[in-house]
Design goal:
Distance between the termini: 56 Å
Shape: elongated
Largest sheet: 6 strands, mixed
Structural class: alpha/beta
Helix content: 40-55%
Number of helices: 21
Strand order of the largest sheet: 7-20-10-6-9-8
Radius of gyration: 29 Å
Oligomer: single chain
Length: 530
Amino acid sequence: MNQRSETPKGRKADTTQLSILWADDEIDLLKPHILFLEEKGYRVIPVTSGSEALDELAESNIDLVFLDENMPGLSGLDTLSEIKRLYPRVPVIMITKSEEEHIMDEALGGKISDYLIKPVNPNQILLSVKKHTEARRLVSEKSTFSYQQQFRDISMRLSDRMDAGEWIELYKKLVYWDLELAATQDDNIHDIFKSQKEEANQLFCRFYEHNYIDWLNDTAEKPLMSPTVVRERLFPLLDGKRPTFMIVIDNFRYDQWKYIQPLIEQYLRVERDEIYYSIIPTTTQFARNAMFSGLMPAEIERKYPQYWVNEDEEGFKNQFESELMGENLRRHGLTLKHTYNKVLNAQHGKRLVESLPNLMNNQLNIIIYNFIDMLSHARTDSNIVRELAEDERAYRSVTLSWMEYSPLLEVIKYLSDKDANIVITTDHGSVRIDNPVRIKGDRDISVNLRYKQGRLIDYNPKQVFEVKEPRKIFLPKRYITSPYIFAHNNDFFAYPNNYNQYVQYYMNTFQHGGISMEEILIPFVTLRSK
């Protein structure tokens, strides 16, 4: 007959109690362990066979199962198989007398959460319970407490006058805490972090605007930027000793990189984890062309007019990336065999994977992946994608899900045992927008939500970064008077006509083109096989 820890009559069961099902044909001998767990506040349901365990799981809400490996009738391993088939999310801890490797292999192959060797002691049992039922809560509490300790230090750094390198380090710290706090259910700590990050973004925008023109005109020491990153970080790898693969994931943020890093590190070793500064506008037409060419957009237009397409002209704005990269290599005396591969869909990705043995014969292979950029645009246009990538955490999660099943991971796996340099980088990031800023303009005004250029733009200069003379930031000028304006932080530009409908359509989407840490501070990661 089953022995149960019953709730006294007349008293309602504590629904916050964790319920543990313990299946062992010698359950009477485990009474001290059961009492120990009950004293710690757990509800323990003891049964003496695998069949009874399955019956109990069908009737009760069970949080954890202790399962004896050697039971008569339905064995522990057979019971495990049924539990995982019917209740795959319930953690199961196998308890066995045997230390034989084949039993451990069978148990682990059955997707157990853990296993313990008899005789077990109460502290072992308690530790295992906490590990598999309360780990998330304990980690969340620890993360919250640790961030509270760091909050003051971050605030003090924000009050300092930081240089470009110090802003990178602060942003790395904010990304770390963003990921650490993602699992916590404490809404208060989420609000505190959001407020601190918004403050950091406001101050970063001021810093960037104050220094940007000086960086471009070499009147101040500048950080690693779009036009210099290839020369300073990629070219030194092209020594002829091994092939180099440069993987450019369009619209890829640093927090997305940190989120997928554990997956990548299963196959490759990170040698350098760096951040560089994108130019503005933070769009493919400007930032990626600057990265490949080693030149600012106005310099590309002047030096290679055949490779530059203005916003008001027909044609793709980044269709000459391969040619611009070739010119950059030649200017620096690098005559080497290289390829340019753009992956726009799964079929392209599969063909690329099939061609990898041939690509190993080249000194440089550039691979462009547009998935995340397509995701951000799809999120704007599709309610389904909006639901999938509802917020920052969901956006990162979708990125990881894509990576796990994409041809790009097949590329990573293939290169994991090859002597090759691998670079993962991007041209710009994106920011979640939620604050509309009213502007007016004629029909010739550029269409991007985060920056505008045109002859007749009506705006509040206090709400934007205004550049009246495009030549100062090395951007092409379309008209005699055609200033650029850039949105700050999480702002986006909205027209008075159909204002409410326009704002509702774009609110809480991920956009790029303006100035924010998420768009500007982007990853450049160098990896090698382990």
